[in-house]
């Protein structure tokens, strides 16, 4: 009915969201990770699901749980996340890449636990594939692609560069400098840049509220 349609404006829309950190194995017992909790990505996935969308959530290791019915794909490394994203991206009308993907991964993973035999130990790392940039290359005209940026300096310039370079429709800049924003926190402060070079500044709020703001900006770009 019309009533259902107006309360669930995204019925039939396919959304892909990534969340959490990635873990890059060093040996069977160690990894390189980061402090991402997955909260922001889960909040975005929940928000879209609450609007009736068909959500696929690709997440790195996290203790977060979704409140809504969605397709959850658990991954560990940046390479795993890349494969899952490539497999799902074609189906998605809207993709939001909020995962904190490792930029570097060990060149080799030791088969056995590394012993502390030498005084110095150098770990050789190589760059991971930029998943967001890869999706930006694959993107068709009917798809919306949204990325995040985390900066500690020249944040506006760097964020706008990423928007262009990765072929995004929107970029969400996380203001890590503000107290109460960022990793592990329940609140966040964001600024969104779009392709029209508009800058939309938001107040610090709960990640649930931030997710609403992000979804609203995305929905302005699609006809729903
Ligand atoms: N990202 C990605 N794949 C990677 C690294 C990052 O998809 N291997 C995505 C993140 O999910 C985020 C965006 O790229 O949406 C920006 O991440 P960020 O760390 O701010 O930028 P980078 O492009 O990795 O550049 P740098 O870390 O040097 O600032
Ligand atoms: Ca990075």
TrEMBL record:
GO molecular function, one term: phosphopantothenoylcysteine decarboxylase activity
Superkingdom assignment: Bacteria
Start and end residues of each DNA/pantothenate metabolism flavoprotein C-terminal domain: 11-220
UniProt KW Coiled coil keyword: no
Pathway(s) this gene product operates in, as recorded in its UniProt entry: Cofactor biosynthesis; coenzyme A biosynthesis; CoA from (R)-pantothenate: step 2/5; Cofactor biosynthesis; coenzyme A biosynthesis; CoA from (R)-pantothenate: step 3/5
Keywords on record: Decarboxylase, Flavoprotein, FMN, Ligase, Lyase, Magnesium, Metal-binding, Multifunctional enzyme
GO BP, one annotated term: pantothenate catabolic process
Cofactors, names only: Mg(2+); FMN
Enzyme Commission designation: 4.1.1.36, 6.3.2.5
Binding site for CTP: 103, 113, 148, 162, 166
Family listed: In the N-terminal section; belongs to the HFCD (homo-oligomeric flavin containing Cys decarboxylase) superfamily. In the C-terminal section; belongs to the PPC synthetase family.
Protein name: Coenzyme A biosynthesis bifunctional protein CoaBC
The gene coding this protein: coaBC
């Amino acid at each position: 009915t019309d009533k259902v349609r107006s309360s669930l404006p995204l019925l039939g829309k396919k959304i892909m969201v990534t969340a959490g950190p990635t873990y890059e194995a060093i040996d069977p017992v160690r990894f390189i990770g980061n402090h991402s909790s997955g909260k922001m990505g889960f909040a975005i996935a929940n928000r879209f699901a609450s609007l009736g969308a068909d959500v696929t959530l690709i997440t790195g290791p996290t203790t977060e749980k979704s409140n809504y019915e969605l397709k959850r794909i658990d991954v560990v490394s940046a390479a795993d996340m890349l494969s899952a994203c490539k497999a799902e991206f074609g189906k998605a009308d809207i993709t939001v890449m909020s995962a904190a993907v490792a930029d570097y991964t060990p060149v080799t993973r030791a088969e056995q636990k590394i012993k502390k035999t030498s005084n110095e130990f150098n770990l050789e790392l190589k760059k991971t594939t930029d998943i967001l940039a890869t999706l930006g290359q694959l993107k068709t005209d009917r798809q919306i692609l949204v990325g995040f940026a985390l900066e500690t300096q020249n944040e506006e310039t760097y964020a706008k560069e990423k928007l262009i370079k990765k072929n995004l429709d929107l970029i969400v800049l996380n203001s890590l400098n503000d107290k109460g924003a960022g990793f592990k926190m329940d609140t966040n402060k964001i600024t969104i840049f779009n392709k029209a070079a508009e800058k939309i500044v938001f107040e610090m709020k709960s990640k649930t509220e931030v997710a609403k703001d992000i979804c609203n900006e995305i929905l302005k770009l699609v006809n729903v």
